């Protein structure tokens, strides 16, 4: 059963204390109380120290997203690679973890919601933040082409509400994901009754998940002033109240851009090529019948093939040939002269729309032509920059800054060298292992190369691309501070715990299932 986060969902709320109606998955003693499996001490009992354990109710599918079960796949270019095109995407076998992904590209109306929040929160004191978040509407301008109506109306007019936002740089997309993460978790706090919506957030008084959890943001509840954003604390020597934290099961992982491997895996939709997938009656078989060239299944065609009313229709939005963006009057082949609605065209086996065509999409990776060489075969990604929290002299976390965020620092090279766990000796891994002998760890942009750490990958093909670019294995790149009328984005969220989704435990279980007895 697919569960959507549309309300509380994860919390059991009792009269005496939040979560008091929940049952921890631990051993009961003779008195009916729950005991630690290692000490025998009672849990959720102030008299026994007050250590709290909340039963895990499972991770719901976030609204607007679909579950993508991870697995092994062959990443990279397909067999019909064009000899005149080198997108540096050699084939290799990798595995990706399960995750949740937006069913569609981010819509104009959703990005306008973000701009509305930014304007309400920051414009008075920091108008430059609002201006910096706006999409670049001039991306529609092109020499010897009249696209002024798109520039004037595409982002603003309600006619395009459910079309993909474009003109957004990689860095702007990352900022959107951060805003969505914090606003989403704030909404969950509000829906539990612990806090009221705060429409007066400005400057440093802005909710973020982190500032709330470290008591640097004070939520308010007019309906229940006894709570005011806090839950009952069972710590015997504490204040009696504490913020909700991740162990309580309410807050969800951050939204972010997908890695290139995640995006490509999701686009291929190979779960649709498994003739015997797992269901409630049988275990799944480890078999994939075909490799997909395009997201719609094991066929190298862009037209719908079943014998019904849709037969022959184009399954995606792309350019058929030079000057042919939509066909002829009375017979428009994809019914879109530019981007189309985000839920138009054929979904793939994961339920994802427009993983080929409509607009290209930013992914999280920094581009290197050699990313396929010596790649990590488990959740491959290029672009890690390791950071750490900052602490004050009294060992409390650093105070939030003027726009409500807690500062952090990149781990120094000395710290990296002194920690034997790290393969690299620097925290910036954009160039790690790429074999660049000229610059060792930094590309000399404009001198020896036209790429640097700001060069990011985008994938998927667009309304202005030929069919070749619709193949998930193809890749292109652009500077992360630039934008285009052919590039949008969508978000993903990490799946926590079991990779199979719902409430199924991870691993294989034989005989009596002890999982539900804990």
Task: Provide keyphrases for this structure.
disordered N terminus; 4-stranded antiparallel sheet; paralog of FGE (formylglycine-generating enzyme); 4-stranded mixed sheet; globular; 518 residues; alpha+beta; 20 strands; single chain
Quick synopsis:
With 518 residues, the protein is of the alpha+beta class. Helix content is 14%, strand content 13%.
Beta strands, count: 20
CATH topology of the domain at 63-108 and 136-191 and 250-376 and 457-505: paralog of FGE (formylglycine-generating enzyme)
CATH domain class name of the domain at 63-108 and 136-191 and 250-376 and 457-505:
Alpha Beta
In round numbers, the mean pLDDT is 86
Strand order across the biggest sheet? 5-8-20-11
Terminal CA distance reads 23 Å
The helix fraction, in percent, is: 10-25%
Assigned CATH architecture of the domain at 63-108 and 136-191 and 250-376 and 457-505:
Alpha-Beta Complex
Shape, principal axes of CA atoms: globular
Order of helices and strands: EEEEEEEEHHHHHEEEHEEEEEHEEEE
Strand-residue proportion: 5-15%
> What's the CATH H-level homologous superfamily of the domain at 63-108 and 136-191 and 250-376 and 457-505?
paralog of FGE (formylglycine-generating enzyme)
Biggest beta sheet attributes: 4 strands, antiparallel
Return the structural class.
Answer: alpha+beta
> What's the Cα radius of gyration?
25 Å
Number of helices, where a helix is a run of at least 4 consecutive DSSP H or I residues: 7
Unreliable runs, pLDDT <50, ≥5 residues? 1-25, 437-441
């Amino acid at each position: 059963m697919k569960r959507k986060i549309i309300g509380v969902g994860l919390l059991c709320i009792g009269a005496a204390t939040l979560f008091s109606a929940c049952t921890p998955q631990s051993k009961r003693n003779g008195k009916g109380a729950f005991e630690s499996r290692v000490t025998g001490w009672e849990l959720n009992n102030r008299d026994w120290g007050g250590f709290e354990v909340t039963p895990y109710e499972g991770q719901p599918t976030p609204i607007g997203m679909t579950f993508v079960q991870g697995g092994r796949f062959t990443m990279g270019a397909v067999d019909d690679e064009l000899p005149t095109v080198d997108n540096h995407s050699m084939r290799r076998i990798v595995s990706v973890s399960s995750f949740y992904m937006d069913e569609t590209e981010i819509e104009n109306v959703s990005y306008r919601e973000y701009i509305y929040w930014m304007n309400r929160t920051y414009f008075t004191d920091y108008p430059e933040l609002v201006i910096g978040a706006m999409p670049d509407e001039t991306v529609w301008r092109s020499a010897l082409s009249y696209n002024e109506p798109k520039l004037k109306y595409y982002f603003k007019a309600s006619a395009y509400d459910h079309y993909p936002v474009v003109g957004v740089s990689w860095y702007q997309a990352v900022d959107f994901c951060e805003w969505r993460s914090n606003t989403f978790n704030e909404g969950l706090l509000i829906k539990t009754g612990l806090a009221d919506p705060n429409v007066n957030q400005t400057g440093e008084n802005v909710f973020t998940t982190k500032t709330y959890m470290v008591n640097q943001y004070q939520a308010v509840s007019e309906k229940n002033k006894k709570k005011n954003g806090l839950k009952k604390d069972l710590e015997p020597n504490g204040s009696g109240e504490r913020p909700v934290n991740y162990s309580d099961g309410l807050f969800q992982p951050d939204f972010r851009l997908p890695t290139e491997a995640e995006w490509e895996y999701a686009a291929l939709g190979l779960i649709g090529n498994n003739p015997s997938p797992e269901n409630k009656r049988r275990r799944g078989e480890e078999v994939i019948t075909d490799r997909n060239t395009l997201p719609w299944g094991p066929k190298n065609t862009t037209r719908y093939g079943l014998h019904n009313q849709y037969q022959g229709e184009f399954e995606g939005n792309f350019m058929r040939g030079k000057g042919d963006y939509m066909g002829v009057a009375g017979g428009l082949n994809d019914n879109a002269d530019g981007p189309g609605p985000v839920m138009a065209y054929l979904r793939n086996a994961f339920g994802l729309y427009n993983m080929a065509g409509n607009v290209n999409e930013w992914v999280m990776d920094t581009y290197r032509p050699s990313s396929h060489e010596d790649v990590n075969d488990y959740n491959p990604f290029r672009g890690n920059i390791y950071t750490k929290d900052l602490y004050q002299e009294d060992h409390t976390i650093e105070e939030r800054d003027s726009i409500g965020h807690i500062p952090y620092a990149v781990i120094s090279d000395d710290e990296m060298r002194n920690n034997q766990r790290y393969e690299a000796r620097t925290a910036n891994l954009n160039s790690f292992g790429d074999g660049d002998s000229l610059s060792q760890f930094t590309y000399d942009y404009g001198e020896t190369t036209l790429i640097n750490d700001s060069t990011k990958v985008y994938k998927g093909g667009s309304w202005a691309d030929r069919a070749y670019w619709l193949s998930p294995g193809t890749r292109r790149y652009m500077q992360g501070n630039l934008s285009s009328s052919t590039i949008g984005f969508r978000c993903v969220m990490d799946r926590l715990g079991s990779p199979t989704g719902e409430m199924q435990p991870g691993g294989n279980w034989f005989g009596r299932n002890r999982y539900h007895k804990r």
